[in-house]
Specification:
By secondary structure, the protein is α/β, with parallel strands linked by helices. The chain has 3 domains: 269 residues, HUPs (Rossmann fold); 124 residues, no CATH class; 51 residues, no CATH class. It contains 15 helices and 18 strands. It has a 5-stranded parallel β-sheet with strand order 7-4-3-12-13, sandwiched between helices. Strands 8-9-10-11 form a 4-stranded antiparallel β-sheet. Strands 15-14-16 form a 3-stranded mixed β-sheet, with helices on one face. The protein starts with a strand and ends with a strand. Bound molecules: adenosine monophosphate and zinc ion. Zinc ion (ZN) binds next to loops.
């Protein structure tokens, strides 16, 4: 298995610490709003990575945090607490906000066929561990108290700039506009481990600690949750590319100073999903969540298919047109498979199975080349293998692709509601003799391969393959 490692800036052979078990940590959502489809692209790639490793024969233990405290609007200890701002806006408590959006996130995972990580741990349930880590960092001289807060001293960690691959001056220039002067800090990139005294006087969630009544910084959460659940030696740590600096950089610094040795061997970062106007972000307020796609009549699995068509290290540009194209391709694929199912024949040819499986493994092992993995699937369908062998391989590949390839057609409740609403609107338009509106509604449905028919019993629809 070869993987691109941000730490070494090279595609490297993956060697697990323990041959039998791969430990994998993936940064989870900050639950102040719905995950946008950019976040979901990252989670889809991480899901393929976990399932692909299992396909190669590894056991994988994966852990993810849920950030329900401490993540500020600026990653460098600036701005406001994201959850607190949302709670104020929605007139709810921070914990209610966290609970609501955690459930929404888990529902998104399910709708995208993303396996729930074995361990999911909310930040607020690990306060004792942050305190333990901060205590040791203070004792060993890696952290200091200033202005009532505890900060990590970045000048004490010589490898601080290794992950980003950028010099201190270069980084300072890059983040100049985002850095708010904090006179408590000794060095500009020092970061808060524990806040007792800050501008967030009305912070809702606070805990007692040896450093005063307060709350943890965002970065310490991931280090603590990873070490607590996966041990001192981590194989893979994932996240979006925006996490490289400062979040993952800070995680490495505090974890390695706490542990006294190297912590994680492979850092895997997923590129962004952009829309035509640029990066999608929750805080920009114009982000698209999965519900908004479903409301427009798109199947979440088509979004997964769309993501798998491109490499995780390439920026993917999203538009409704590209999603329409993915819908067509996915529907065609499903109809081919349906045909195979209706005409199943022949004994499974296991020697051929192995040949195709090897190609599929090779595609995955090539730095998780998902588009090549899809090509392997199409190669099976196009091949002269008998139908039962094809179906066997499709089911097998779908353990990693998770595109519901063998599932019978069932349309989601959301899609059904969408179509019924459109039909009702069209009937209303016809009643009002607004035929151009009626036609445009029919055309809109048609562009999604939904064909409506007016019968004596009323309007019916069919999904065209
Ligand atoms: P957040 O909920 O903001 O902490 O982000 C959750 C995950 O999504 C992190 O791993 C981010 O790096 C990743 N992410 C954020 N924005 C995007 C985007 N536009 N495309 C892909 N991944 C993203
Ligand atoms: Zn994290």
């Amino acid at each position: 298995m070869k993987l691109y490692n941000t730490l070494t800036k090279k595609v490297e052979e993956f060697i697990a610490n323990d041959k039998k078990l791969v430990t994998m940590y993936t940064c989870g959502p900050t639950v102040y709003y719905y995950a946008h489809i950019g976040n979901l692209r990252t989670y889809i790639s991480e899901d393929v990575l976990e399932k692909g490793l299992k396909y190669l024969g590894y056991n994988v233990k994966r852990c993810m945090n849920i950030t329900d405290v401490g993540h500020l609007t600026g990653d460098g200890d600036t701005g406001e607490d994201k959850l607190m701002t949302a709670a104020k806006k929605e007139h709810k408590s921070v914990l209610d906000i966290a609970k609501f959006y955690t459930e929404a996130f888990l529902k998104d995972l399910e709708r995208l066929n993303i396996k729930k990580p074995e361990i999911i741990s909310p930040a607020t349930e690990n306060i004792d561990f942050y305190i333990k880590m901060i205590n040791k960092l203070l004792k060993d001289g890696y952290a200091y108290e200033s202005g009532g807060n505890i900060y990590f001293d970045t000048s004490k960690f010589s490898k601080y700039y290794e992950l980003s691959g950028r010099s201190k001056d270069d980084l300072l220039l890059a983040v100049r506009d985002d850095v708010e002067a904090d006179n408590n800090k000794k060095n500009p990139f020092d970061f808060g481990l524990w806040f007792t005294n800050s501008k967030f006087k009305d912070q809702e969630l606070k805990w007692d600690s040896p450093f005063g009544h307060g709350y943890p910084g965002w970065h310490i959460e991931c280090s603590a949750i990873a070490i607590r659940n996966l041990g001192e030696y981590l194989d893979i740590h994932c996240g979006g590319v925006d996490n490289i600096f400062p979040h993952h950089t800070n995680e490495i610094a505090q974890s390695e100073c706490y542990l006294g040795h190297k912590w994680c061997n492979y850092w895997v970062h997923m590129e962004f999903l952009n829309d035509k106007s640029g990066k999608m972000s929750k805080s920009k307020g114009d982000s698209k969540d999965l519900n908004s796609l479903i409301e427009k009549g798109y199947d979440p699995i088509v979004y997964r298919y769309f993501c798998l068509q491109s490499h995780y290290r390439k920026v993917l540009v999203y538009s409704l047109e590209s999603l329409d194209m993915a819908t067509n391709a996915y529907n065609k694929l499903k109809s081919k498979i349906k045909n195979l199912k209706n005409n199943s024949s022949g004994d499974i040819d296991y020697s051929k199975v192995k040949e195709y499986q090897d190609k599929f493994k090779e595609a995955f092992s090539n730095d998780m080349n998902t588009s090549l993995m899809l090509t392997c699937l199409y190669d099976v369908i196009k091949s002269d293998l008998n139908n039962n062998t094809k179906l066997y391989l499709i089911e097998d590949f779908d353990k990693v692709l998770s595109l519901s390839l063998l599932e019978d057609e069932k349309i989601s409740k959301e899609l059904e509601n969408y179509i019924s609403e459109k039909i009702a609107l069209r009937n209303e338009a016809k009643k009002n003799k607004d035929y151009s509106l009626a036609d445009s509604i029919r055309d809109e449905l048609l562009s999604k391969n939904i064909v409506i028919k007016d019968t004596r019993e009323g309007t019916t629809f069919e999904i065209r393959k």
